[in-house]
């Protein structure tokens, strides 16, 4: 049996309608270099989705494999339970504390984004208990937020359609509207939009009872939900509100971290420091699985003082080979100034795409190389396309036929771009060209 038939026979893929999946051929990627991946037939694809928004340093970096192999020969595993530890985990924790803002100096390792989100939520509940508020267990999140697919992370995720077949979910997760200036109540022309969206958080805290809320958990710039860029002052208002009620602000930087938005951490664009950062994805650029929760000193100090046990952990937390890969990844990212590159290359894309004046792109937004293109039949009225498949998926399929991989928000007519931060200028030019042309031709088919 060939590889494609074997795949269909045995591999359950993520996020598929099985009926569609079995009717098609899987695309098996065998090799990658820079921003390009190659399939079994040797066909190259410009990966403007960067895997799943994580291959920040690009494909094919040999030095990561060499360092990981050396670590594997020396010590392939030791855990971080009890009083045990390992060298790469310690060095990486110190490095993350160095990169993180404020007093975010304590690091707990996980294996990916969902585990980071769940660990942060547990840490927040523990903190509230340490502070003598045992009923402080609610976690407020955003309706368009995406935080992963395990039960806790899925409970934190908004996007109701994504969860409707899996209930009952974990109690205590509550959702408020996202600061969405395209579709939300307060648009780009509303100067107080940031304050008004943040006020929704305070209203909800008061409605629930502040003593019952542990944390506000959200992405600084929402990714999967449709690259939602909040107003610049939104996070400063959130910070003030969280401080007022001693509610923790957990920033899910799983996608936005490590240069994706033109800074190591997206929160630094907004001049406000969270209490906890969740990380994964760009932490290793996908070379090995790893996630991290970076907590402020004061959370760990409160739990220490109350002498509550941290009865939480994962067998592979702080895996030495993954940590070694993360250290090598961060060294490349720093050496090559990839955050700055992300800002510059992202600006080039924006400028060039704006010049095209594509009539079906009603909003072009994002930061660095985290870019969203909002599609509408008509820019002024924001009228959507409707029809099946959703316009974004039709564009995605047509781009793929042209050798370009893009991301699509699953429940909104938005194209999400998260290419490797090493994307070249020539690749930006090609991406702009293909996208502009394909968007026009696919949209015109529906007019
Ligand atoms: C912001 C955010 N949080 C969490 C996750 C979940 O990460 P993982 O798939 O590694 O569990 C994702 C994945 O896309 C994400 O974008």
Provide a concise account of the structure shown.
By secondary structure, the chain is of the alpha/beta class. It has helices at residues 3-10, 18-23, 50-53, 62-74, 87-99, 113-130, 151-156, 160-163, 193-208, 234-245, 297-306, 320-335, 338-356, 391-401, 425-444; strands spanning 29-33, 36-39, 44-47, 104-110, 138-142, 173-176, 213-218, 248-252, 276-279, 291-296, 361-367, 370-375, 404-405, 407-408, 414-417. The structure holds pyridoxal-5'-phosphate.
Task: Please characterize this protein's 3D structure.
- The longest helix has 20 residues, at 425-444.
- A hairpin with a 4-residue loop joins β2 and β3.
- The model has no long low-confidence stretch (mean pLDDT 97).
- The radius of gyration is 22 Å and the shape is globular.
- Strands 4-10-9-8-7-5-6 form a 7-stranded mixed beta sheet, with helices on both faces.
- The chain has 15 helices and 15 strands.
- The protein has helices spanning 3-10, 18-23, 50-53, 62-74, 87-99, 113-130, 151-156, 160-163, 193-208, 234-245, 297-306, 320-335, 338-356, 391-401, 425-444; strands at residues 29-33, 36-39, 44-47, 104-110, 138-142, 173-176, 213-218, 248-252, 276-279, 291-296, 361-367, 370-375, 404-405, 407-408, 414-417.
- The protein folds into 2 domains: 3-57 and 337-444, Aspartate Aminotransferase, domain 1 (Alpha-Beta Complex), CATH 3.90.1150.10; 63-335, Aspartate Aminotransferase, domain 2 (3-Layer(aba) Sandwich).
- It is an alpha/beta fold and 447 residues long.
- The protein binds pyridoxal-5'-phosphate.
- Residues 52, 112-114, 117, 146-148, 219, 223-224, 252, 254-255, 280 line the site of pyridoxal-5'-phosphate (PLP).
């Amino acid at each position: 049996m060939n590889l494609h038939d074997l795949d269909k026979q045995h591999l359950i893929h993520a996020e598929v309608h099985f009926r569609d999946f079995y009717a098609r051929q899987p695309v098996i990627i065998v090799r990658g270099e820079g921003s390009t991946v190659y399939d079994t037939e040797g066909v190259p694809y410009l990966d403007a989705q960067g895997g799943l928004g994580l291959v920040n340093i690009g494909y094919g970096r040999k030095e990561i494999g060499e360092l990981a192999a050396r670590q594997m020969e020396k010590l392939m595993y030791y855990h971080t339970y009890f009083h045990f530890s390992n060298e790469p985990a310690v060095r990486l924790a110190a490095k993350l504390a160095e990169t993180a803002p404020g007093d975010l100096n304590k690091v707990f390792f996980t294996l990916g984004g969902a585990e980071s989100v769940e660990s942060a939520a547990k840490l927040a509940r523990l903190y509230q208990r340490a502070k003598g508020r045992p009923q402080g267990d609610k976690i407020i999140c955003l309706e368009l937020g995406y935080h992963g697919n395990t039960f806790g992370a899925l409970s934190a995720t908004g996007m109701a359609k994504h969860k409707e077949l899996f209930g009952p979910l974990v109690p205590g997760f509550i959702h408020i509207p996202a600061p969405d200036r395209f579709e939300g109540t307060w648009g780009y022309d509303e100067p107080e939009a940031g304050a008004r969206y943040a006020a929704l958080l305070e209203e909800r805290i008061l409605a629930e009872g502040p003593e019952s809320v542990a944390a506000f958990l959200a992405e600084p710039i929402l990714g999967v939900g449709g690259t939602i860029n909040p107003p610049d002052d939104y996070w400063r208002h959130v910070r003030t509100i969280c401080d007022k009620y001693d509610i923790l602000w957990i920033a899910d930087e799983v996608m936005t971290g490590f240069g994706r938005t033109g800074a190591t951490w997206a929160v630094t664009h907004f001049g406000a420091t969270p209490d906890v950062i969740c990380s994964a994805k760009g932490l290793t650029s996908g070379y090995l699985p790893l996630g991290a929760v970076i907590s402020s000193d004061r959370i760990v100090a409160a739990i220490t003082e109350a002498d509550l046990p941290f009865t939480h952990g994962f067998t592979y937390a702080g895996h030495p080979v993954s940590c070694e890969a993360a250290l090598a990844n961060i060294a490349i990212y720093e050496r090559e100034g990839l955050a700055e590159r992300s800002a510059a290359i992202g600006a080039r894309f924006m400028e060039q795409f704006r010049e095209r004046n594509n009539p079906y792109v009603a909003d072009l937004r994002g930061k660095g190389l985290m870019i969203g293109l909002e599609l509408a039949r008509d820019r002024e009225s924001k009228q959507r396309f409707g029809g099946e498949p959703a316009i974004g998926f039709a564009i995605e399929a047509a781009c793929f036929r042209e050798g370009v991989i893009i991301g699509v928000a699953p429940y909104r007519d938005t194209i999400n771009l998260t290419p490797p931060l090493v994307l070249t200028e020539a690749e930006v030019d090609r991406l702009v060209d293909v996208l502009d042309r394909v968007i026009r031709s696919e949209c015109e088919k529906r007019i």
